[in-house]
Design goal:
Three copies of one chain form a homotrimer. By secondary structure, chain A is α/β, with parallel strands linked by helices. The first copy, chain A, has helices at about 20-25, 40-50, 70-85, 100-110, 130-140, 155-165, 180-185, 205-210, 250-265, 275-290, and strands spanning about 5-10, 30-35, 60-65, 90-95, 120-125, 145-150, 170-175, 190-195, 215-220, 235-240, 245, 275. In chain A, β10 and β11 form a beta hairpin.
């Protein structure tokens, strides 16, 4: 018996993600078991369905992907899945609800191609969402000094506190952006800015961006115009504009997709991986090194 | 990487159609992504999951099938899918909810094998449902003069008005059937009659059918007795009865299945097809010619 | 066209069983059509989707598996499926909701490896659940005298009455266990005891078991401690303890899995099998003989 690659797809949305499914198939998965409307209390029995059907020595051919549009719900499902494992009864699991991990990894890798993160100051705009928080976390682990920007001080501080607790030595500064002047201050003197705001909201105008002294890299993850960083185009993938190396949502997305596919492939090499932000970023870094 | 054939199956019913799935698998689809309970507002994100996961040059390997038991809901899903496409970001899509298109195509092709449609008068009974309306439309495009029959005058007129607006030069006559005499009048002097009524309702007795002068072809799409046309058997596939060439629901269905499978196969040849009644009928016609 | 093996999985639970799906894939099924939240009134149309898509000569490549966590609901779905079949329009179908049939078969086969069932007295504890009832039924058919034990007299009698009606000559004694003394009486002088109670409930202490005269085989289907039979370990698969041959839930489960996989494979040999307790037990027996 050849043991096929089975991926259990858990999704909090009623309609499970088609995006996640096609990527998984293109990454070589043989069979998808797709579940929508999944709640944390459903996960144990679903996971047991993988744990108790194949010999422990074959469990690396079964894995779990947690997707969907809602990253916090995805985090709850991930916790429930990991809680279901015991002893050798475990399978590899990846979280990428709303693309939070692959997007964060690709964005930080893009920045790291142009500035030495360990010596850099980086501003993350709209840093309090799932992608923004992960970007801050990854940057902090690389030794960057990070300005964690939000419209509300309390949110920015909350993110800083949580990440400081998780990343020893993290250098984080909460920044409140409640005016044009505050936005300009937030990027003054930084080497890179990453904008993680929602679709159709401009967080920095092109003029603000151009006038920031020392800025080298501008990364915008908002694909729907108006974009987050004025003048940065969605397809930018290292284009130079106004002296800044620019990346747009689609430019980052292309690399994100490669990381996503590679991460799915990796799930089936062992039965004990938990691929969250750090692990997926590390994989992306390996891929970057391998590509030279 | 070999790119597998992925078919996104959208279905308004809570339980997605098994029928549609088996036909798709037998037509060579590698992976089905089956969705039940789909509403028009769900379609864009589901379709995006196809559009943004593969290179544009590979999008012909992804396609959408809209099935289920409810044709009008299927029409809404088709519109939502086509609305989600933009520029080169599109995939081929087929509508066949409740078999409306493949059944209509097979029924009109059956009629056309025995009478020259462009010169014929054809009566469509119970013409106001999804299958009936499509049959009227296809007949009108072939140049037939069509008597559009319903129990209610206003429904028959509504169908005529809508099809006249869509098919330039369509020759349509609304016919109200509110008595046995009206039923007899409706088929007097026509070359073919197609009955599209619901299961277990006889629309014409065998005697009425036999006494219709000039009638050559009788097609009945109701598989559950009492059948729509008295004396026509479900398995009839060109049988001669009382001087009429007869087709029953199963006789038409056999050809319908071949068209359905061929249409699924065609979806994967290009990424820009919209297979609705006319396109599926044209495909059936090609198949008929190819078969000699 | 190679006809692929398609298995329609019907499940009353909202989230269809992952366990059942992985077993089916490992048994060689090519495509699963998985349905959760299935009610008996949904089954006909779903089954028709198999019956009307392939030629009768190919229907053995389509089959139905009824799983999920609720055996009585599974029984209702099985009835609805069989009711949908007519004439040659049928596919093979297997019921194993909550593993009721494969577990019962494996448990009775385990007992039969060590005692001659036709000459034995066997006690079934917590015999009124789906697994317990099936074990009583299979034992009765093998000619064993069965003590049918429950905490409530009326439940024990109900099971006896129903099985006596189904199995001519069945030798059944209802037993009420409402005290420690009653538990001891229930196994006094029997050759085998099978415990079918729920997780975390001990039905017999180790001391009670040890003091039962004549007891040779102790089988416990409760995997979550406290186990049903004191001292029997979940992984026991014929281990000798205190002079008893012991089987625990995992020990029985290993054989159960083999029977489950083999039964799935068998579904695709013909299109007219109904695999319920007796048929699955017979298959397990064949496998045991073949293995020597």
């Amino acid at each position: 018996m050849t043991v096929s690659k089975v991926l259990l797809c858990l999704d909090a949305d009623d309609q499970p993600s088609v995006f996640d499914s096609v990527v998984a198939l293109d990454a070589g998965v043989d069979h998808l078991l797709r579940h929508g409307g999944v709640r944390p209390e459903n996960v144990r029995d679903l996971a047991y369905g993988l744990l108790f059907t194949r010999a422990v020595s074959s469990l690396r051919h079964s894995a779990i992907f947690i997707g969907g549009s809602d990253a916090p719900q995805g985090e709850s499902l991930l916790k429930a899945a990991v809680d279901a494992f015991f002893g050798p009864f475990r399978v590899s699991v990846m979280l990428d609800a709303n693309g939070c991990n692959t997007t964060a990894a690709a964005a930080v890798l893009a920045a790291g191609r142009h500035v030495a993160l360990a010596d850099a100051v980086v501003t993350v705009l709209a840093a309090t969402g799932p992608v923004g928080r992960r970007i801050v976390r990854l940057l902090a682990r690389e030794g960057a000094r990070v300005r964690v920007a939000s419209r509300r001080q309390i949110h920015a501080e909350g993110v800083c506190d949580r990440i400081a607790a998780a990343v020893p030595g993290a250098q984080l500064t909460p920044v409140t952006i409640d005016s044009a002047a505050a936005a300009e201050d937030a990027i003054e003197g930084v080497q890179a800015v990453v904008s993680c705001g929602p679709p159709q909201i401009e967080l920095l105008t092109a003029d603000q961006r151009k006038s920031a002294r020392g800025l080298q890299v501008a990364i915008d993850l908002n694909a729907v115009p108006p974009h987050g960083l004025g003048g940065v185009q969605p397809t930018d993938a290292g284009e130079s504009r106004d002296g800044h190396v620019c990346y747009g949502a689609l430019g980052v997305g292309k690399h994100k997709m490669k990381i996503h596919r590679a991460a799915i492939g990796r799930l089936f090499l062992r039965n004990d991986l938990v691929l969250d932000a750090e692990e997926i970023y590390a994989l992306g870094k390996e891929m970057q090194h391998a590509a030279g």
